[in-house]
């Protein structure tokens, strides 16, 4: 039995992520989870990034870093990368941008720049408050029409998917 066949037989689904087209198996993107996750993520990123750039001069990565620094003040860039699952170069660029804009304060306990500890400045805290209001409004639009129980189930499923592919 081929690996693909083993995977197919192991999955219990109501709808198949593939369909037949003239004897060839093709993806059915309406039921292929990675496609739908990426489509939602890409659409979300385009919409929110445009708003954050227009209103705050910041991108989506910057917002994610700001949010993480508000959640865990006084953390390293490495910790930010681990939690928000972003590459170090993107986080480093964002920290540089946010710091230059006056949104951060930094402490370097030793000679190693990788050990820098980052916090939001007073200005950064205010920017966080302002963007958070916009972000929550965008989220409300995203989840409009989804019942509370369905949303909680969906979030549980997303957390399980994340654990399946990137356990931390």
UniProtKB/TrEMBL annotation:
InterPro entries: HTH_MarR-typ, Metal_resp_HTH_trans_reg, WH-like_DNA-bd_sf, WH_DNA-bd_sf. It comes from the Bacteria. PROSITE patterns: HTH_MARR_2. Keywords: DNA-binding, Transcription, Transcription regulation. It holds the Pfam family MarR_2. The keyword Transcription regulation applies. Transmembrane segments: none annotated. Residues 4-163 form the HTH marR-type domain. The keyword Transcription regulation applies. This is MarR family winged helix-turn-helix transcriptional regulator. It comes from Sulfitobacter porphyrae.
């Amino acid at each position: 039995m081929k690996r693909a066949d083993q995977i197919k037989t192991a999955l219990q689904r109501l709808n198949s992520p593939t369909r037949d087209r003239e004897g060839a198996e093709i993806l059915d993107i309406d039921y292929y989870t990675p496609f739908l996750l990426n489509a939602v993520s890409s659409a979300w990123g385009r919409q929110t990034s445009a708003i954050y750039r227009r209103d705050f001069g910041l991108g989506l990565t910057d917002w994610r870093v700001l949010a993480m620094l508000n959640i865990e003040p006084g953390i390293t860039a490495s910790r930010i990368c681990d939690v928000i699952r972003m590459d170090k170069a993107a986080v480093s660029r964002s920290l540089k941008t946010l710091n230059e804009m006056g949104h951060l304060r930094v402490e370097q306990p030793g000679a190693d720049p990788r050990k820098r500890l980052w916090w939001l400045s007073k200005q950064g805290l205010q920017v966080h408050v302002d963007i958070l209001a916009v972000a929550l409004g965008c989220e409300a639009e995203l989840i409009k029409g989804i019942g509370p129980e369905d949303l909680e189930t969906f979030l549980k499923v997303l957390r399980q998917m994340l654990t399946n592919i990137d356990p931390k």
